[in-house]
Amino acid sequence: MHVKELKRSQLEDLARHRDHLRTSPHLRWLFFEITNRCNLNCKHCGSNCTAAGQSLTVSDIETTLATVPADKPMVCLTGGEPLLHPDFFAIAKRVRQMGFFWGMTTNATLITEEVALQLKQTGMSTVSVSLDGMEESHDALRRHKGAWRLALRGLQALQKAGFEPQVTTVLHRENFADLDPLYNLLCEMGITSWRPINVEPIGRACEAKDMLLRPDQFARLLSYIRDKRYDRSCNMEVTFGCSHYLGVEYERMVRDHYFLCGAGILVASVRSNGDICACLDIENRKELVQGNIRTDNFMDVWLNRFQIFRRDRTAGCSRCVSCPERFVCGGDSTHTWDFEHNKPLLCFQDYQQYL
To answer: Average pLDDT, whole number, for the chain?
Structure first.
């Protein structure tokens, strides 16, 4: 069987599995936005985080996890900047005591050698650090002079404590030229995993649409990742994120897995106000909130609600209905689906001519 035919067959098998998960969901990842406070003010922030905000309590986390059965999901602590939570280490310790593996996403500006050692003591399994280009580009996107140097300090502290942090880089039009310099820097630092991704049309990025990569740039990013994945001169995995169906040609070429949006079938989240939702990157619309941990049993909500995420949303989309990729794509990522106009904000068809 030709490689493309094999990949198409595997994509169709996965799409059938996705349809099965819509009736029999399996919780594999549970995200807690433990606070929506942040010490930065990023231009592209999908959550519009600020210095003021709300936070979950240790009891909120404990009560939620107590409803989750023995087949435990991976717990991800995020924000905002999770380390701004005054009880962060108490939360982290309790999560691990309850038998869950956990990781976090962070801007790393608050991570010193002492903090890194504390994270080690809590049993943190994984950590993702945002580094959006070289110094000038990163500080401009984060709107905080010195943020890049603090992030590098945090990365080095994590490495010294024995972690292998993954670096995530959001690419937009102004920092696209930083790809090679950043790749070289991360190689020199001994980073073992780098995830360059495109800025998404969500949150604050919707207010600055000139940030979004042009279709030809998006295609160039995929080509760059594909080429670097097989560069043996640097012992670093380069991978695209979980977002977006990329077509048969690029699926499994820029990441180890095929595209499958897990929102509401594999992934659930709890926002800083207690609201239960699918993925934290999905716009915060009333009809997308499935309950609240302070009034509802989390696992009951997971098993018996989420219907809006467990349907074929492409059926009502005029663009999707005649698309030959419709079945395997499934409407692409839920967080870039326009629920108001029932259409995708990003679509494989927009950039395939450049691949």
So the answer is: 95
